[in-house]
Amino acid sequence: MPSKFPEKFDDVSLFRKANVYYDGQVVSYNVAFKDGKRKRIGVILPGVYKFRSDDLEKLDITAGSCRVRQANEGEWVTYNAGDTFVVPDWSYFEIAVDQGILEYISSFETHLNKKTYIDKAYPSSDRG
Q1: Which of 13, 83, 92, 101 would you call most buried, defined as having the most Cβ atoms within 10 angstroms of its Cβ?
Q2: pLDDT at residue 98 above 70?
Q3: Which residues contact 86 (CB under 8 A, 6 or more apart)?
Q4: Cα–Cα distance between 11 and 14 in angstroms, integer?
């Protein structure tokens, strides 16, 4: 069954500096497209992690599975390869990988009027 997500991206710039969070348990790389859009391609090892997102963030799960709890929601929702979830702007989410490796592609919808997120208690998923 073919994936609904691209197998490769053409005509992009890949930044070699890795975004490393939680002592290397979450690692991603930034990709810039000619039209100015950006994505992040990454992996998450087993564990539970909390991230904030200043921009609206869409995460496409390309391999593995995870559970996600959005800000101010009590329930965890399970996502598998082929699924997508969206994190609202100026928000946070928790993501749990129970086994294996989660692979993902995230994309961002940047605000025209940026502001500083006050709570720096956990890393920002949209800053590299």
Answers
A1: 92
A2: yes
A3: 56, 57, 58, 59
A4: 10
The predicted structure's pLDDT at residue 127: 46
DSSP state of 62: E
The amino acid that residue 74 corresponds to is G
In a domain, 124, yes or no: no
Q: Measured between alpha carbons, how far is 33 from 49 in angstroms, rounded to an integer? A: 28
Provide mean pLDDT across the span 41-55.
Answer: 94
Q: Which CATH number fits the domain that encloses residue 20?
A: 2.60.120.10
Record the pTM.
0.83
Overall residue count recorded for the chain in this entry: 128
Q: Is residue 118 a part of any domain in this protein?
A: no
Residue 7 lies in a domain: no
- Span 50-69, pLDDT tens digits: 999 888 999 999 999 999 99
End-to-end, the C-alpha distance of the chain in Å comes to 33
Structure tokens at 83: 């699924």
Domain that holds residue 22: 12-109
Report yes or no on 116 lying in a domain.
Answer: no
Number of compact structural domains in the chain: 1
